[in-house]
Write a structure and sequence with these properties.
The chain has about 350 residues and is mostly helical. The chain has helices at about 5-20, 25-35, 40-75, 115-145, 145-160, 165-190, 210-230, 235-245, 250-280, 280-285, 305-315, 325-355; strands at about 85, 95-100, 100-105, 110. α4 runs parallel beside α7 (about 210-230) and α11 runs antiparallel to α12 (about 325-355).
Length: about 350
């Protein structure tokens, strides 16, 4: 029997298909036979470099902070994060202080416990207040308002997220601080004064409460915009099925939308928390820039790590030993590590939720 050309082609294809299955399928055969084009190779290299850029940048920042803060680490040791006193010492005295091979001005002592406490408490207040406001705003935009109105208000929310912090700081000085000092602070003290932390004195309004409220204003649009995007990804079929079972709109939100978007909302909260931890100018303008003591109530003036770096930098530059600048670099190093400790576990939780098939923000 004479094989026709068509049968020969069919036999060749069968043999190629068998070889392709061994190599990973027909696509594997094509990839094995065809050389990588120059454009594909260039794209692979460029995307690899870009993907590694973030990690390289973080490592470069860490190396820079370690190098500049090393003299302060030697001089202060663990006292840096366990004591309250921040004192650059006598900058115009010839007397010097030596410790562990490092030199500082006489009487210099660097402790950042008040700045850590101020940073954590103000960020905590902001997150506690921003979560319900942001989720409620996102639900309003996605579930309750008509699509056209919701899109318009979403644009306004995104604009609020881009307002410069110094503008919000000026608003805090002109509006927020007087309101806390004359109205909201006395009202809060009257109703919650049985809790020691909410008891007076209230003071001028500058302090922890003002810092927490202005951070709330700053991070609420960020969390709300991200939460809105996650809620929009809720499967329409699942929501329609829940309504068909007789659930009300709120019951659908509570039983379907919020559980579906929970991990994405968590990611949005972490994003807002990162913004709150590192905020500088607005907090500096309303916090009172206090040092060397812990806040006794929610109205007490505070200092944060980021604001302290900005407020102390000019005077630190006059230290002939350079230790004050090194100490500020160590403050930045501690803030960097806190941000990593907060964000890395959060990203791992989000990745784990993604592997389980839950919805995530991109």
């Amino acid at each position: 029997m004479i094989a026709t050309p068509g049968r020969d082609d069919l036999a060749d294809r069968v043999r190629e298909g068998a070889a392709g299955r061994k190599a990973g399928g027909a696509l594997g055969v094509l990839q094995g036979r065809l050389p990588m084009r120059a454009g594909d190779l260039l794209l692979k290299v460029v995307t690899g470099v870009v993907a590694a850029g973030a990690l390289i940048a973080m490592l470069a920042i860490l190396v820079f902070l370690l190098r500049d803060s090393w003299p302060s680490i030697l001089y202060n040791g663990w006292h840096f994060i366990t004591t309250l006193t921040w004192n650059v010492g006598s900058l115009y005295s010839r007397a010097l202080s030596h410790r562990n091979g490092a030199t500082a001005a006489f009487g210099a002592a660097y402790g950042i416990v008040p700045f850590i406490v101020g940073t954590v408490l103000s960020s905590l207040i902001a997150v506690v207040l921003a979560i319900p406001l942001s989720v409620a705003l996102a639900l309003l935009l996605v579930e309750y308002l008509p699509a056209r109105i919701g899109e318009s208000l979403s644009f306004v929310v995104e604009l609020l997220a881009g307002v410069p912090s110094v503008v919000l700081g000026l608003w805090g000085i002109a509006v927020l601080i007087p309101w806390i000092g004359h109205d909201f602070g006395p009202w809060l003290s009257h109703w919650l004064g049985w809790i020691p932390f909410f008891r007076g004195p209230i003071g001028s309004g500058q302090g922890l409460l003002a810092s927490g409220l202005i951070l709330t204003v700053m991070i609420t649009p960020i969390i709300a915009a991200s939460t809105r995007d996650v809620l929009r990804q809720t499967p329409r079929e699942t929501k329609d099925g829940a309504r068909a079972l007789g659930l009300t709109r709120w019951e659908v939100i509570r039983a379907v939308s919020l559980p579906w978007a929970s991990s994405g909302i968590f990611g949005a909260v972490v994003l807002g928390l990162g913004r709150a931890l590192g905020e500088t100018m607005a907090v500096l303008m309303v916090s009172g820039s206090a040092a060397n003591y812990l806040p006794s109530n929610i109205y007490s003036p505070i200092g944060t790590m980021a604001a302290t770096i900005v407020s102390q930098l000019d005077s630190a530059m006059t230290d002939p030993t350079g230790m004050a600048v090194h100490a500020l670099a160590e403050v930045a190093l501690v803030l960097f590590l806190i941000s990593v400790v907060v964000n890395v576990p959060a990203r791992l939780l989000l990745s784990a939720a993604a592997r389980r098939g839950g919805p995530e923000t991109q």
